[in-house]
């Protein structure tokens, strides 16, 4: 985009305000607990307090000072978060807002949370006009770049398959990290399961199923032939078998 759409600026500001409220609560702690770093590193030594883990006793310092001291550790996060947004045709469905719009705003919220947690954040969408790829980096300005990329995608570009986006992400994301996949997953499971399993073998993958209630409602059309609709439990079970965590995100529960 040669100029930033004023509406896009307003949407970014709304996402930042909403997510800042969530981050200021316990959500940032929950995020850090759910997505831990690669380990811990020694930080400092402090006097022992009742309830401290005795396995962390620093015996040398304790002997030198004459009082028990324990080691303190800091988490080594060094995490990269990649957002993969499905831009296929079915994501254009939904009213009054499309699933594609909902997925973009959810991705923007995740970007803010990850950025506030100190993680690197990036994004990838694949469409008929090419690839929109933002490498994972840190910093508020970079998070803004990611959000503009996912919210400002040209809606006139027809999407391509999710499998392509997943494979490109795995190739680009060499270091182990977290991949959030935002999609309705309405394509045939065989079209993306192998790509999801490949991604899960190298990264922590979270499938965010963006659902439209009408797609799972029974039509009032007389006698029709139906296949069993997959409910939330079935969704989670299917992804669990691939080593992928699952979160079902109804389009009506979008970030506002």
- In round numbers, the mean pLDDT is 77
> Spans with pLDDT under 50 lasting ≥5 residues?
225-230
Structural domain count: 2
The main pleated sheet reads as: 6 strands, mixed
Q: How many helices? A: 7
* CATH fold name of the largest domain: Rossmann fold
Number of strands: 8
CATH architecture of the largest domain: 3-Layer(aba) Sandwich
Query: Considering DSSP H and I runs of 4 or more, what fraction of the residues is helical?
Result: 25-40%
Query: Would you identify the CATH H-level superfamily of the largest domain?
Result: von Willebrand factor, type A domain
> What structural class should be given to the helix and strand makeup?
alpha/beta
Oligomeric nature of the chains: single chain
Q: Tell me the overall shape.
A: elongated
Please give the alpha-carbon distance between the first and last residues.
Answer: 24 Å
Query: In the CATH hierarchy, what is the class of the largest domain?
Result: Alpha Beta
The H-and-E topology, N to C, reads as HEHEEHEEHHEHEHE
Task: Assess the beta-strand content as a share of residues.
Answer: 15-25%
Physical arrangement of strands within the biggest beta sheet: 5-4-3-6-7-8
